[in-house]
Design brief:
The chain is an alpha+beta fold and 102 residues long. The chain has 3 helices and 3 strands.
Length: 102
């Protein structure tokens, strides 16, 4: 009989369980696992500035989705992305540029 080992957990991300305060994340490049503890969770109503930030974030992601549907804009962003070295993903680069516009 031949035993073939399998990888049970491919990656870790997020909470361990719904009531835990510890978060886990695995770096995909070097496979290191990072943990963080949520010491003082906020449970109140979001402030006006928090709501505005959430709205701005949603608008930026909607703009990113629109860019990916427009091939001409996507080609422009792709050329600019290739010329820079700060961002590692095209989607992240487009998000940063669209977020700056808002």
């Amino acid at each position: 009989m031949k035993v073939i080992p399998i990888q049970i957990i491919e990656g870790l991300r997020g909470k361990i369980c719904s009531h835990a305060k510890m978060y886990m994340r695995q770096n995909r490049k070097n496979n290191k696992v990072f943990t963080g503890n949520l010491c003082n969770p906020f449970e109140g109503e979001a402030s006006a500035s928090q709501k505005a930030g959430r709205t701005k974030f949603k608008q930026a992601w909607a703009a990113v989705a629109a860019v990916f549907e427009d091939s001409a804009k996507l080609d422009e962003y792709r050329a600019a992305f290739e010329a820079q070295h700060k961002y590692t993903s095209l989607r992240g680069y487009i998000f940063a540029k669209e977020y700056e516009k808002l």
